[in-house]
Amino acid sequence: MSTTNTMPVLDIVFKGLGVTAIQRGERGIAVLILKDSTEGDPKKYYKTIEDFGSEEQAKFTAENVLYVKDALEGIPLKLYVFKIGEEEKIEDKLVIIGGKIPRNCWIATNDDTFKTSLLTWVKAKVKNNKKRYKMLGFKLTGADDMHVTNFTNEKVTFSDKRGETTGDKAIPYLLGFLAGISINMSAIAFELAKFKSVVEPEELDTAIKNGEFVLFNDEGIVKVARAVNSLSTLGQDLTVEMTHINTVEKMDLIYCDIYTAWDKSYKGKYPNILDNQMLLISAINSYYKSLARDYILDPNFENISMIDIEAQRLANASKYGEDVVAEWSDEKVKEMTVSTQVLFQANIKISGIMEDFKFPIYM
């Protein structure tokens, strides 16, 4: 005998996700890929420096021990570390990595021989496999993507005994730092005491406009100049808001929440009729309200999902004819669901972070 539980289950899932969104967005997950042939497999992940004791450190070179500690210093929720030996190919390892890491995470390597393959892989996974990986890399070529952050300072000076080094050595720390930032804050809000100073690009504004993530010296304190990703080519469906790391973090949180709720609680479980579609829309809109209460979405905007009338009208045209469906009212179109397809659209406004300040004072 079948259960009596129906659509409210999904509503509970979405409400639960909405209520916990701010907690889940407090810190993200980081994935660090290192070149290391030392024997021994690392733990599945590290949550704190306590997890990375002498037994774990023995599985890495001395240099890589420092990199893992750097990444943990940024306080990500979890840190996954993968080693690739001298005789291994990163392309083979990425198959394993992709099966172990979560859908939404930061991922980086500071190895120059790995970064191009990692960049190609991340872009493909985001585009083709519904992943929401965010890559951090050093002086990447051909990035130009909202899910890729391109760090370009030529040199940094660490506050510890390492002193001045090339910029790629800062990648592990910046990985943990970016993953560890709350979803309602921007990277520019922090003083990076990890570094004593940095070598800045000649023109900070030009670098930022080109989609470069750079650090600068602000009266003796190292800070992030602007928390931007590498997206620089704007156009249809790619707006300036999407160049901001924080905006993409929120986009990815919402995407993964809706994808997960649909995949686990709804897909294949209910008849595709208008009543069930409206219940799903109601659940998603309740989720949006929860996000607005936490200022992930703008509470002063009507964040709402709805049936995509035009898409559904077009999808019905091949069966009933264009002339026929053109005469249907919007309500009739809603009723005429299309086989297994659920065709929704949404209007939402993601809250930005206060970064720019203009304040003319007239006297």
Q: Mind explaining what this structure looks like?
A:
The protein is an alpha/beta fold. It has 2 domains: 27-181 and 193-224, 3-Layer(aba) Sandwich (Rossmann fold), CATH 3.40.50; 240-347, no CATH class. Helices cover 37% and strands 17% of the residues. It has 12 helices and 13 strands. It has helices at 8-24, 54-57, 62-73, 90-98, 115-128, 171-179, 204-209, 245-265, 274-293, 309-320, 322-326, 330-335, and strands at residues 29-35, 78-84, 104-109, 132-138, 148-151, 155-158, 164-166, 195-198, 212-213, 215-218, 221-224, 304-307, 344-347. The protein has a 6-stranded parallel sheet, with helices on both faces. A 3-stranded antiparallel sheet has the order 7-6-8, with no helix packed on it. A two-stranded antiparallel sheet has the order 10-11. α3 (62-73) runs parallel beside α6. It is globular. 36% of the residues are buried.
State the CATH architecture of the largest domain.
Answer: 3-Layer(aba) Sandwich
What is the β-strand count?
Answer: 13
Helix content: 25-40%
SSE pattern = HEHHEHEHEEEEHEHEEEHHEHHHE
Q: Label the overall shape.
A: globular
Cα-atom Rg, whole angstroms? 23 Å
Q: In what order do the strands lie side by side in the largest sheet?
A: 2-1-3-4-5-9
What is the distance, rounded to the nearest whole angstrom, between the alpha carbons of the first and last residues? 79 Å
Largest β sheet strand count, sense and barrel closure = 6 strands, parallel
Low-confidence stretches: none
